[in-house]
Design a protein that fits this description.
Blueprint: E1 10-11, E2 18-19, E3 22-23, E4 29-36, E5 43-51, E6 62-66, E7 74-76, E8 81-88, E9 93-100, E10 111-114, E11 118-122, E12 127-131, E13 146-148, E14 154-155, E15 168-176, E16 180-191, E17 207-218, E18 223-230, E19 234-239, E20 248-253, E21 279-282, E22 312-318, E23 327-333, E24 346-354, E25 357-366, E26 379-389, H1 390-393, H2 402-411, H3 415-418, H4 439-454, H5 459-467, H6 472-480, H7 483-506, H8 517-536, H9 542-559, H10 578-594, H11 605-619, H12 633-649, H13 655-658
Antiparallel strand pairs: 1-4, 2-3, 4-9, 5-8, 6-9, 7-8, 10-11, 11-12, 12-13, 13-14, 15-16, 16-17, 17-18, 18-26, 19-25, 20-21, 20-22, 22-23, 23-26, 24-25
């Protein structure tokens, strides 16, 4: 079978001269970077970030050459990364060489210009105007002072003001192109006393609090990226009607409570039936009704919530009339890994009628105290603003939307993440086939299956299959013990992984029902035994073994990615019932121990070891009794014991010998 996997390579070659920790000038190449596609998945045009082997000083005489030796646009970031712009077709390769020499004069792909009371930032597709600092903050400008739609129309034109005056304001450019422009707009406000009716929560004294909005425009991208961080109650909104005149919206979430909040194409209430699709919303400009939390017509967009009601993780607005504008306005959830207790804060859409005119608006709002009387003192979330074309990007409700692919790129899986995976990595110290017990254990089972098959029986095979249907192909492989069966089982894992990668890049991404959160963990967990056994077998062809190792590494990368599932401290997200989070974390731990010598996951092993002992002591007392009821003892203890078996077999620690419990 032809290789269908992606290997991403990042390497330095040639002569590397270091002076005071920076790349020195030399006639030799300074570093080389490459990315090679082997998943069979085409990646769209995007900015890819590589780690530089050493910092490049500002103004250094360096340039980037592509594989043909021609100058390529690049940017050295303040974070110490090298930014390049590329796509990557299935099976393709892109490579660059960073070399000394005067950089060529290439046009900037993101332009910044100073206008009257604003800075204008544009690329070839979209644009935004951000404020300058006025002499008088009595009317404090908000972060957006204009948006350029795809047909060139400027909308949301200012002056657009914050909900209340700031005490201080600052505008600072963090990156100035040519591929990425990033600007930070900071405000300082007076902050009121925060009091909760919950007696266990202390008052937060009055004082001062910051609000910061960081805005990013990338070359060639139809989206503008925002990160909001705040410690005060404040809001702002802009009128997006000009050039858009929307009468309809679409969002993708879980379900709606009435047709007014979201309906199917036939007019019935929007429902979730194990297949995600868009809700349709007929925008209401006549109502005075407001959502109680967002205080606009429609609820906050979800930050990360598979069960979002009357809203979704993206919204798009448009004029549904055939003769209407082709502009498409959208908002989508930002990287979940950046979330810090957003509470009652977020982005929403408002509609109203003023002086006979229909007005659609975008709002950003922050509120520390929640209806439950819990509060958050520091809020952070990201979001994206998508400016597309209705004729190109708007699809039927049951299809993948253009905004969804932008959300994948900026908030999900992208080439920068895939590029972290090395093409090869060391095997575990115990080898393969000894995941939970010595290899002789499964070899004995395999021999019994072969003997049963030779005798015309199937009872043992059926009993094992009924215990775990995921093992079906592996049981057949053990019973038949042939290269053909090994190839069949390996290709099943490879296909599932290829489909997963395609969904993450070009499909519904992290919210696809059968690949989201605990559902993804279930699939990955089920295939771990397959991967282990196939890597242990001499019957599995070497090329398939290499691909299986890449499967395992990709799964572990996703399981540790907080953009996929935000498990970082203080993220403030709803993980659902405890068993869902348990499935995700236990799968993360098992893959980490399986890949205990992988350069990305080796450093995670002590964390998994510590968690295994914590779980053991949480669920058992000093006499060894489980704290769960008799009915749930197995469900509680089996995953913990599996971890200890893995720790023992991978030669990390033998908890059975060292811990009395």
């Amino acid at each position: 079978m032809a290789s269908c996997f992606t290997r991403y390579v990042l390497f330095a070659s040639g002569v590397m001269l270091l002076v005071s920790g920076s790349l020195a000038l030399s006639a030799q190449p300074l570093a080389q970077f490459a990315v090679e596609e082997r998943f069979g998945v085409s990646h769209p045009d995007q900015i890819v970030y590589f780690d530089l082997p050493a910092p490049v000083k500002p103004g250094a005489q360096v340039n980037l050459l592509d594989a043909a030796g021609k100058p390529a646009p690049f940017q050295t970031m303040s974070s110490g990364h090298l930014a390049v712009r590329t796509d990557l077709p299935a099976g393709g390769t892109r490579s660059w060489t960073l070399a000394s020499g005067k950089p060529p004069s290439l046009p900037s792909e993101v332009r910044v210009s100073k206008q009257r009371d604003w800075w204008e930032i544009t690329n070839s597709l979209v644009g935004i105007r951000v404020p300058t600092v006025p002499a008088d903050l009595a009317q404090t400008p908000c972060p957006i002072q204009g948006l350029r739609y795809r047909d060139g129309t400027w909308s949301a034109l200012g002056p657009n003001l914050m909900s209340r005056p700031a005490k201080q304001m600052q505008v600072e450019f963090l990156e100035r192109g040519p591929l990425v422009v990033r600007v930070r707009i900071s405000y300082l406000y007076d902050r009121a006393l925060l009091h909760s009716a919950r007696p266990e929560l202390p008052d937060i004294p009055a004082g001062e609090g910051p609000y910061t909005c960081t805005i990013e425009v990338q070359a060639g991208q139809p989206s503008i990226l925002f990160e909001e961080e705040c410690e005060v109650e404040v809001s702002w909104s802009v009128d997006i009607t000009e050039g858009l005149n929307p009468d309809r919206a679409q969002y993708r979430g879980h379900h709606a409570t009435s047709p007014e909040w979201g309906h199917e194409p036939d007019g019935s209430v929007y429902q979730y039936a194990n297949v995600r699709h868009d809700a349709l919303v007929d925008l209401n400009y006549a109502t005075d009704q407001k959502d109680p939390w967002s205080r606009t017509t429609y609820p906050f967009m979800s930050h990360w919530d598979p069960w979002a009601v009357n809203t979704g993780y993206y919204w798009q607005l448009y004029d549904s009339r055939p003769q209407g504008s082709d502009n498409l306005f959208g908002i989508f959830a930002g990287p979940a890994s950046r979330l810090i207790n957003p509470g009652l804060s977020g982005v929403s859409i408002g509609t109203r009628t003023e002086n006979g005119l229909k007005i659609a608006s975008l709002q950003v709002r922050f509120q520390r105290l929640m209806p439950t009387q819990y509060y958050t003192t520091h809020m952070r979330f990201g979001w994206g603003l998508f400016l597309g074309k209705k004729s190109e990007d708007l699809k039927p409700p049951d299809q993948v939307q253009g905004i969804n692919r932008q959300m994948n790129l900026h908030s999900g899986m992208n080439l920068t993440k895939f590029a972290r995976l090395p093409g090869t990595y060391p095997d575990p110290p115990q080898g393969y086939g000894a995941l939970y017990a010595p290899a002789r254990v499964w070899q004995k089972i395999a021999e019994a299956l072969r003997q049963e098959k030779a005798a015309g029986g199937r009872a043992l095979w059926s009993a094992l299959y009924n215990e775990d249907p995921y093992l079906g192909d592996i049981l057949t492989f053990w019973a038949n013990n042939s290269v053909e069966e090994a190839r069949k089982a390996a290709e099943a894992v490879i296909k599932w992984t290829k489909d997963f990668a395609e969904i993450m890049v070009n499909g519904e991404g992290i919210y696809r029902h059968d690949r989201h959160y605990f559902m993804a963990a279930g699939g990955m967990a089920g295939y771990l035994t397959w991967i282990d056994q196939l890597l242990a077998s001499e019957l599995t062809p070497p090329d398939l073994k290499q691909q299986l190792k890449q499967c395992a590494a990709l799964f572990a990368l996703v399981l540790w990615d907080h953009d996929f599932v935000p498990m970082q401290p203080n993220c403030g997200m709803n993980w659902g019932p405890a068993n869902m989070a348990s499935m995700w974390l236990s799968t993360r731990y098992t893959y980490t121990l399986f890949l205990c010598r992988h350069p990305l996951f080796q450093a995670r092993v002590p964390e998994v070891q510590q968690e295994a002992f914590r779980l053991l002591h949480d669920y058992t007392n000093e006499d060894g009794a489980c704290s769960a009821s008799a009915h749930y003892t197995g469900a509680s203890m089996i995953p913990i014991l599996n971890l200890f078996q893995q720790l023992q077999m991978s030669q990390v620690v033998d908890g059975f010998a060292t811990d009395p419990r």
